[in-house]
């Protein structure tokens, strides 16, 4: 397995599309090597089967331009509970050797697996660099950024995803068992139109924070480097404020 630039880790199929689909699409457009690792198959989902969700995940990844997608095989509903879960993610990181890792926000979320996945990945990013832990050649990613799912947090930075917004939506809607007509037959928190409206409204609010139509929010520990000071030498394009390009 060759290394990737960006590895998005998700508790379930569709989490990466909901939380960081915009950044994944932008990275793929720029030529970056991207991958998604679903920790579980989503076997406890109210709608759909693991086999169906795998097909939907494959389609969604293709829409975003993601190069590789794998399933780690942890049990849905029990992410982070098993003693071997951390080592499984350590081995995942050593396998892909990403420069950047994206994972759910680790502090709180409506679904316990989401926050547990964030904590699991955070710990694994550290232990992946410890030679005597698990198998594989030690490796530690440059940065870990947490994306937003249900729980709202104060972003460390916001990425302009306006150019790929429709692509991002199409990837989410590829999960027809979760977000399509079938999902509305048995009510779930994400199955109705109100959840899609929530995602759009949230992206609008985050976009407004940086002066663009749609934004995707992230949290990280420590400062994020910038390539100079945008707007200091030449005026920003258009009438809005400058959009700061981070060394993500």
From TrEMBL:
The keyword Transcription does not apply. One of its GO terms (biological process) is bacillithiol biosynthetic process. Keywords: Zinc. It comes from Nocardioides immobilis. GO terms for molecular function: deacetylase activity; hydrolase activity, acting on carbon-nitrogen (but not peptide) bonds, in linear amides. This is Bacillithiol biosynthesis deacetylase BshB1. It holds the Pfam family PIG-L. Coiled coil: none annotated. The keyword Lipid biosynthesis does not apply.
């Amino acid at each position: 397995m060759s290394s990737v630039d960006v590895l998005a880790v998700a508790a379930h199929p569709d989490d990466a599309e909901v939380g960081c689909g915009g950044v994944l699409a932008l990275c793929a457009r720029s030529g970056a090597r991207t991958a998604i690792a679903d920790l579980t198959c989503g076997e406890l989902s109210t709608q759909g089967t693991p086999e169906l969700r795998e097909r939907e995940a494959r389609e969604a990844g293709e829409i975003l331009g993601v190069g590789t997608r794998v399933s780690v095989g942890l049990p849905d509903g029990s992410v982070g509970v098993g003693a071997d879960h951390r080592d499984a993610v350590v081995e995942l990181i050593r396998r892909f050797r990403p420069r950047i890792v994206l994972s759910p926000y680790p502090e709180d979320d409506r679904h316990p697996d989401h926050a547990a996945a964030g904590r699991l990945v955070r710990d694994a990013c550290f232990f992946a660099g410890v030679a005597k832990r698990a198998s594989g050649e030690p490796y530690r990613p440059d940065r870990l950024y947490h994306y937003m799912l249900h729980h709202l947090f104060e972003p460390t930075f916001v990425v302009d995803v306006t150019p790929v917004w429709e692509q991002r939506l199409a990837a989410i809607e590829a999960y027809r068992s979760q977000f399509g007509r079938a999902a509305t037959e048995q009510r779930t928190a994400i199955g109705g139109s109100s959840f899609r409206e929530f995602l759009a409204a949230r992206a609008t609010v985050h976009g407004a924070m940086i002066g663009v139509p749609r934004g995707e929010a992230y949290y990280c520990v420590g400062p994020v480097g910038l390539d100079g000071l945008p707007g200091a030498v030449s005026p920003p394009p258009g009438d809005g404020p400058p959009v700061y390009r981070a060394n993500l």
